[in-house]
Write a structure and sequence with these properties.
The structure is a single chain. About 55% of the residues lie in helices and about 0% in strands. It has a single domain, classed as Peroxidase, domain 1 (Orthogonal Bundle), CATH 1.10.520.40. The chain is built from ten helices and two strands; from the N terminus they run αααααβαααβαα. The termini are far apart. It has about 180 residues and is mainly α. The chain has a two-stranded parallel sheet with strand order 1-2.
Length: about 180
């Protein structure tokens, strides 16, 4: 019997198998319209956890040796729920840069600075989930799912003063792209 090494999903190394598992699951979800619709209707991470599609992703990661405790399962529920809202994958641009990019024919960012700052100020995953759902709608359902996974699995309360807080990177990316007023 082979013993799997247990580790956490969605590390900084983009070659990690967890990203392949996520992207394969997302592609299969595209064909499973009922399961995708079920996830899209979920208004909270808890409701996402009631979905068989979420449990499919969870089991795939666990079978590959990824460790997901209570916190990791909640983060995965946020990610799975958001993934259902993504219509097209964007792989060559960080998600925050997508938010700051102007809409075609406009001088305004797709996501307003006020909404972006509210997003950065959010600590709780349950509060972050509906905000990111709305943002995915504002970027027309096009999103970098890999970048989103990395960020969600590193999102912590600001008070923890995490030196690897993804909000800092998001701020740099957003403001590097957003049109100046």
């Amino acid at each position: 019997m082979q013993t799997l090494t247990s580790h956490f999903p969605f590390p900084y190394e983009l070659q990690d198998r967890s990203y392949t598992i996520l992207l394969d699951w997302w592609r299969e979800l595209e064909a499973a319209k009922g399961e995708r619709a079920d996830l899209k209707r979920a208004d909270s991470p808890m409701r996402v956890a009631f979905s068989p599609a979420y449990h499919d992703l969870l089991h795939r990661l666990q079978e590959a040796g990824y460790r997901l405790g209570t916190d990791g399962r909640e983060r995965l529920a946020v990610l799975a729920g958001l993934a259902a809202h993504i219509k097209q994958l964007i792989n060559d641009m960080p998600f925050a840069r997508q938010m700051g990019s102007p809409t075609p024919g406009s001088q305004k960012a797709k996501v307003s600075e006020l909404r972006f700052r509210r997003l950065l100020a959010t600590d709780a995953l349950g509060e972050l989930y509906p905000l990111l759902r709305r943002v995915i709608g504002l970027v027309d359902g096009e999103a970098n799912l890999v970048d989103l996974a990395r960020v969600i699995f590193r999102w912590r309360p600001i008070a923890e003063q995490n030196p690897y807080d993804p909000r800092r990177d998001w701020a740099y990316e957003y403001y590097a792209t957003a049109p100046r007023s």
